[in-house]
Amino acid sequence: MIAILHAPDLRSVNQARGDLMLWYTGKRLLQMIPVFFGATFLIYFMVFSLPGDPIAALYGERPPSDAVLAQIRAEYNLDKPFIVQYLLYIGNFFQGDLGTTYSGRSVSDVMASAFPITARLAMLALAFEAVFGILVGLIAGLRKGKLFDASALVVSLLLISVPTFVIGFVLQFVFGVQLGWARTTVSGAAPIDELILPALVLASVSFAYIVRLTRASVSDNLNADFVRTATAKGLSRPRVVTVHVLRNSLVPVITFLGVDIGSLMVGAIVTEGIFNINGVGGTVFKAIRLGEGPTVVSFIAVMVVIFVLANLLVDLLYAALDPRIRYAK
Amino acid sequence: MPSKNHGAQPHFVAALEDTPLVAIDRLDETAKARSTWADAWDAMRRRPTFWIASGLIVLIVLVALFPTWFASVSPTQCQLSDSNGSPQSGHPLGFTFQGCDVYSRIIFGTSASVTVGMLAAAIVTLFGLIVGALAGYYGGFLDAVVSRIGDIFFAVPTVLGAIVLLSVLPDRTPVVIALVISIFAWPQVARIMRGAVLTARSSDYVVASVALGVSKFKILLRHVIPNAIAPVIVIATVSLGTFIVAEATLSFLGIGLGPGTMSWGRDIGEAQTSIRTSPQVLLYPSIALSLTVLAFLMLGDVLRDALDPQARARR
Amino acid sequence: MGIVAIALASTGALALSGCAGGTTSAEGGSIITTNGTEPQMSLIPTNTTEVGGGKIITSIFAGLVSYSATGEIEDEVAESIESEDGINWTVTLQDDWTFTNDEPVTASSFVDAWNYGALVTNAQGSSGFFDNIAGYSDVSNTKDDPTGATDESGAVLQIPDPLAETMSGLTVVDDTTFTVQLSGAEADWPLRLGYSAYSPLPTVAFEDMDAFGENPIGNGPYELAGDDAWQHDVQIDLVTNPDYSGVRTPANDGLTIVFFASFDAGYAAVQGGDLDVLDQIPESALASYESDFPDSFVNEPAAVFQSFNMPYYLEHWSGDEGKLRRAALSMAIDRAEITDVVFQGTRTPATDFTSPVIDGYSDSLEGSEVLEYNPEEAVALWAEADAISPYTGTFDIAYNSDGPHQVWVDAVVNSVKNTLGIDAVGKPYPTFAAAVDDREASALTGGTRAGWQADYPSLYNFLAPLYQTGAGSNYEGYSSEDFDTLLKEGAAASSVEDATAKYVQAQEVLLQDLPTIPLWYQNTSGVWSDTVSNVEFGWDSVPLYSAITKN
């Protein structure tokens, strides 16, 4: 009788929760619009403010005549005031034209070749740092002060203070040159197996963050009331650890992973350089050096969308990890 | 209050003041209620790790402030004939690629590196903490605005922002570099703090405080932040190290510290040339960096434990 | 751990969609793999000004002549190039050359290509290479606004039509003959013609130059391997051109130029067996390449000159005081030690303003002792200058940190500091654009890195563009009447020997004035794996690809 009375209520509660989630997601997606305009405007302005004339620099120490330079500047709208350049870019953007690089390639082509490779690399690195980072952090947190914890600390310190180029160089030399287990440099198609080594290098610093974060959260939560209650209830230790401790420890870790996607994609310049990967980081870096507004802005516009979506996903995961967290309003 | 009841029956139990119980029951009415922060300080100073870490940090700060106390050889007198040379008397760690004394370069580079690392970590942590806490605690419109501004800042590639900012700014002092790094790094801390505050604000003691009628802001300050700060401390301490390395990257790109300024990061970056033949040149500045990070990691750990009431109770 | 599952799922999906562009160059006969960089522009000969595109253009096109390993010209399409006076030249072509689309290579293929390259409205980066042909000023200048000046708001004025569409100095006589009239006598004009900007173009190019640049059709020893041979930012696949009959007939089946963002990555690739030939050794491997590749490396002087300029507009650096200080500076630098330690012998100390691989190079110019390390004399000259006006402040040398300059700039300023006892530092600019901006605006605070890689093997090419009054690459604005006169006399000399004598005298003027302080010549330094043989490098530091054989 009671169950029958309660069933519709529960369903409506779930229904309401689902509606709230949809509404929340929709609201967040709408927020993308001002973020898109804010970010593109800011970045276009920054590229515009870069010191030096990008067109003259294309020709190194052998500048062609001023008339030739002026004509090329006009071709890329560089002769117009900043706001006109930006509006022209945005106008073309919404017609599907992302502009061209100074080498005459369409920016959408450049994006189509760089983004898939970077996405594979970043996801692989994210998977590595998440799996190994959480695992090592969990064990270190459970055995705080023991040998494993101390070793994890030493490894983290090493990864923080030894720069990426050294880690990359050493792994490339050992596995690529001496053992011959992996290709030294990644081929054009960049299949997953060739990206394993670069992904490990790319994940190294974030791995240190995640180990420390997980360890801190786990050791905090071990003392929490709900864990004592669960232990007192007679739950097995593995169950207590995975269901109660780990789950409640993941909120900061998941937040970090969400934020880290950006640095893994745009910030992979050094790793991409070592393994000669034609990815987003190197392309954006090169475009910044050349002062190619449309290339930089188009890439970053995509990155902004990825950020907002990743952060949205993280916020939705909060509720799944910790039922007490509610969507605002 | 001693009682002097003459007409009454004599006590058959000892007067309260004569029993040891008085010590237990006595309430020090003049004492102020102890804050979480004061409790934390008490807990912290009882731990040896705290003193080891603090000692190390004091030493590092001393080296940064008074490098001449620790090294007598000039770090800028470099003879190419000593390039990557091995240690000799007066030069305990040998020479860099350019033939400068490794030991005194590390000593004299401490100031810039530690300033960049500590200042950037402090700014990022404070600003990120405040912004993230407000966004997570009050939610709604404030959260939306702060989080989306964070997204925009995080989307700007640091290299681009740094080139633009540093070519506008006249002097590339360690303070300026720290500011530039901070501008692009705060959203990370803000988001972590926001997530932790979201968890903390729905916990039982916050609900209880609300029921007791404590003001919202006081709850944030007294209960939510201390309970949400653990992950931020971790990020801050680890970031301190990565910011010192970030300075190296900026210098490597020609947008770091001004010409002639010494730093560990710069030495680490320059050792790239010698990585195949003389890796020891890279080793020493990395060790200095590791020790600094280690000191702050330990301090962060102690502070985190001290702020966690359950962990404190157990000890 | 939901995020991990999602991550792995999407990774799989991307892997499937991303595999389409894969190539394997390991199989398929004797294809040589070598390093390169993504061409900065589409592959049009007159618009290719940098090394990355240049080595591809040179491989797929054959001009009138090409250069041997030592920089002598050898006839390709040319039968003869003759002149009585150094002004009027008659070019005769061999009649059996074709482009890879079977179109014959005729006099028009050259004349049309050169006219296209020179015309201002085509905005070609190499247009300046035609500036000595009669009529160039009419195609390079526009009717009302010859300078491309800007209006008050900074916007560039609209470019009006040029005065003429073609250069009057170029005349097609018949299919295999054309004449060239130069605007002034130039005895060694044919020496230029091996440069890639002088390549012929087929008629199909002029129909749609942009499309042509993506898929160029040439007449060289190699051709593009199909429509998608150029994978942008990854590599370009070239195969041998069966119809090619010039002096560079390939001994291999093809060439895959893999684009590397850094020489470090390329070096690791050769070590790991993923690349055959690397044409430059990264800084980090300079100390170890001889032991890593004991039997397969090269290290010999090349046509690259490196120096730094001290602008005349700076206080203390003009007049007699400046002259003294420049000489002191030059003698304060221990070039031998720096090339030995910093570059591990992959640079050769400079004794002139050109390069040892160029005909007419001399290591005994009058006054060249100013290029030798002489600390006592340096200190004495510096003190003499201080007597005129005492030097204060920090001395700096500007460089762009997007190139590999920091290490040697630091070594040079240390040498100056140690010898002269002044404060000296390197001053990095984040990009080449930022550095050149300050050079053009005369806004330097000290010296600036300079350098020159020759386009064609001639003394003139090392001198005229850099030090002639008003020349395009004379950023610091050096101007000397004596030098200009000697250069003009050299260009107009009736024989190469007479010309060389004038250029030597011109350099002796430079040694007096030191508008640039010569440092060293960059060597050709490369390594290759044991999978290839017969690796020889040209005068321009690029391997002679056609001669390489696969073992």
UniProtKB/TrEMBL annotation, chain B:
Instruction: Report the SUPFAM superfamilies cross-referenced here.
Output: MetI-like (SSF161098)
Its GO biological process annotations read: transmembrane transport
Pfam families to which the protein is assigned, alphabetical: BPD_transp_1, OppC_N
One Gene Ontology cellular component term attached to this UniProt record is: plasma membrane
Give membrane topology per the record.
Multi-pass membrane protein
InterPro entries reported for this sequence = BP-dependent_transpt_permease, MetI-like, MetI-like_sf, OppC_N
Question: Per the UniProt record, which residue ranges are transmembrane?
Answer: 50-70, 118-140, 152-169, 175-193, 231-260, 281-299
Task: Show the PROSITE patterns listed in the entry.
Answer: ABC_TM1
Give compartment(s).
Answer: Cell membrane
Q: What is its main location?
A: membrane
Matches recorded under CDD domains: TM_PBP2
Q: What are the alphabetically sorted keywords of the record?
A: Cell membrane, Membrane, Transmembrane, Transmembrane helix, Transport
As for family, the record states: Belongs to the binding-protein-dependent transport system permease family.
Q: What is this protein called?
A: ABC transporter permease
